[in-house]
Amino acid sequence: MNRVLFSGFCLIQVCFLVAGDPDPADIDKIFSQWDKPNSPGCAVGVVRDGKFIFKKGYGMANLEYGLPNSPDSVFRIASTSKQFAAMAMALLAEEGKVSLDDDIRKHLPEMPEYERPVTIRQLIHHNSGIRDYLTLMSMSGLRDNDWYSDEDVMNMLARQKGLNFKPGEEHLYSNSGYFLLSQIILRVSGQTLRQYAHEKIFKPLGMSHTHFHDDHSEIVPKRASGYRPTENGFQISMTTLEMCGDGGVFTTVEDLLKWDANFYNNQLGKGGPALIEQVLTPGKLNNGEVLTYAFGLTVRNDRGLKLVEHGGSFVGYRAEMIRYPEKKFSVIVLCNLGSMNPSQLAGEVADLYLADAFEAPVEKNASSQKAYQADPASFQRYAGHYYRVDDHSILNIVVKDQKLYRTMANRPDEELLPVSEWDVRYASRDLHIAFQRNAGGTVTGFRLLSDSFNLDRPYQKFTPYQAEKKDYEAVTGKYYCPELDVTYSLVLGEEGLELQMPGSSNVALASQIKGEYHGPYGIRVVVNPSGDGLLIHAGRVKNLAFVRK
Predict the structure, then answer these.
(1) Domains and CATH numbers, the chain
(2) Counting beta carbons within 10 angstroms of the beta carbon of residue 43, is it exposed (0 to 12), middle (13 to 18) or buried (19 or more)?
(3) In the prediction, which pLDDT does 182 show?
(4) In which element (H, E) is residue 323 found?
(5) Helix, strand or coil for residue 198?
(6) pLDDT value at 280 more than 90
(7) What is the pLDDT of residues 205-258, one digit of tens each?
(8) What's the CA gap between 146 and 157, in Å, rounded?
(9) How far is 26 from 469, CA to CA, in rounded Å?
(10) Torsion 462-468-471-476 (CA) sign
(11) Whole-structure pTM value
(12) Which DSSP state fits 471?
């Protein structure tokens, strides 16, 4: 790439260099493994003071026709869409057509009447307790490549007599909340979310290549196809689902520049900073605890700088948009390959530009973190089995090749780095384990913490229960769930108990706690003491009751 040193203007890509900025080649290195004519990739934009200082496409938007990615390629941005749905609801409230503290049943009367009302505000902040519809539909036997409608989702949610938790008591990410926002907007305004967002957000900001995609058969000019990796290359990974709110926005790096600029000089609604202040204000739990989740955006501290961000992940698309408002600096990474990690990639780009602005830069390379030199012989005192006190999910800490790792079912191992005698950190993430001990100095549990996120999860050490064949035989049979309108079976497999679910192969279950059986994907089966039913938990869905047939 030829560049004029005094201006830094490049013809192949946009990059305006100032003293202290990284060489564009350093950004190219971050994305080099995808910048090939036979690979999907991404489009990248780096923004400072409302203007691009770097933008470029890497890899291909369409492998069949050999079309490269570019800053004007149109990507599905999955959950990064949530900030647009939340803004639409904030605008509807500014118009006086709804109150964010309305009981959702005022607008969606078919939803069950729970012990406590669920409010629109709780949908926005993910503390409503309403179960995640994508998980529910999957548990009913449907998959991402199956088609179902908004009406089907509403019917499923209307059957949910139970919640994950009482409204406002906890925070658990749920796509249902943002899907329900789209339904409330439709019923209150008479417009679909696509129509309302176009009129109130995208058109005023000049985002001419952005829309909520509510018709899967619609032709989208310059669309980047979604892909997933296979042993022999890549496979198309798209969806026919048309739900909007929790996802569904199609947009470009170019258009997201205009959205980013509006956070500094709001042109939406009545104008002015009040709307922006509202959508950047995190929610609260009933006990007053302040969350990091605001209106479709996470607001937190990153090494001394305020960070506003939200990622997205669905089928063959991945997206991330991060903003450091104190520096008027943002990074946009939109990808069309399901194995890419745009959050990590955007962070690496930001580190190149803001290295001197962070209070305490975090080393990316685990091997370079040498703040505390622990004796590997002491690692065994941490090893053991731990369950999370609130939901009994299990993780293990093991020693392998004189290194410490966290292991969990169906997830890659993660190295743990000691930072003091009784504290370890995840090598690749901002997570911290503080071990707890009894009077004799034996580890009894730990707290899983984060310096950046509002996270404090207690884990207790335990001795796994050794289940026998008679334990499995006692619970085999068929179980019906009226909330899913589906029947599951517990059967004896070659190596133990297995869960038969419609639409999937059998799931192997292991018992480490008496009366409980754990499987991959966060599945936990809890047998009623009477033996007449089960409670099944699966990540963003808790407390689904099954009755034994």
Answers:
(1) 78-354 (3.40.710.10), 371-462 (2.40.128.50), 469-548 (2.40.128.50)
(2) buried
(3) 98
(4) strand 317-324
(5) helix
(6) yes
(7) 999 999 999 999 999 999 999 999 999 999 999 999 999 999 999 999 999 999
(8) 18
(9) 58
(10) positive
(11) 0.88
(12) H
Q: Is 137 within 8 Å of 153 (Cβ atoms)?
A: yes
Distance, CA of 544 to CA of 163 (rounded, Å): 9
Q: Which two tokens stand for residue 177?
A: 């909340």
Q: Band of the pLDDT at 30, cuts 50, 70, 90? A: very high
pLDDT digit string, tens, across residues 414-469 = 999 999 989 999 987 778 899 999 999 999 999 998 766 667 889 999 998 888 88
Which residues in 330-356 are b (16+ Cβ under 10 Å) and which e?
A: bbbbbbbbbebebbebbbbbbbbbbee
Six-digit token pair at 279? 């959508």
In the chain, DSSP finds a helix count (H) and a strand count (E) of 12, 31
How many Å apart are CA 433 and CA 416, to the nearest integer?
Answer: 9
Partners of 491 in beta bridges: 498
Burial 147-183 (b: 16+ CB within 10 A, else e): ebebeebbebbeebebbbbebbebbbebbbbbbbbbb
